Description:
Elements: E1 2-6, H1 13-26, E2 31-35, H2 41-51, H3 60-84, E3 88-92, H4 95-105, H5 110-120, E4 128-133, H6 136-149, H7 163-179, E5 184-188, H8 193-205
Parallel strand pairs: 1-3, 1-4, 2-3, 4-5
Amino acid sequence: xxxxxxxxxxxxxxxxxxxxxxxxxxxxxxxxxxxxxxxxxxxxxxxxxxxxxxxxxxxxxxxxxxxxxxxxxxxxxxxxxxxxxxxxxxxxxxxxxxxxxxxxxxxxxxxxxxxxxxxxxxxxxxxxxxxxxxxxxxxxxxxxxxxxxxxxxxxxxxxxxxxxxxxxxxxxxxxxxxxxxxxxxxxxxxxxxxxxxxxxxxxxxxxxxxxxxx
Length: 214
């Protein structure tokens, strides 16, 4: 199983990815929890570039290609080997984020973005994608609070974008989900963390190996 978690800044996807990974491990599932960008050592360097507030003038095309470079490496060295070992892979963001952020919000050609996604991901598509959806005002408030409490400074390039950018990302995600109803599970991310975990885990229970549950 290849499971991805998506959503705007501050939606809670990273928290839920960690929570669900722990829950699945308790159920006896062999899994890998990873993220994009930054799922490899080189990818982590790319992540620092992409998220650094010092790089506000990074051209949209360069941004798009950096994400694809990270993904190509991530797929070849981390995700594909794990899937080949029959592990469940849980990924905090994947190519839907690139479509929403760089395609819908940055205005990069969607056909080009989609094709680059296909190439970088080796044609592999998630089995299930959880979209944690919430109003932009809610997500950004959470994200800014998280950043203020973090020891990592200056990694807030996207949080500094204007509201219209984040609205475009959210609308992009919802449009992608609408076009891929068999893969997407849209969850109201304004709910509490415990409730969100229950909803997501319930959606995965049917896929657990026989005899394994809560």
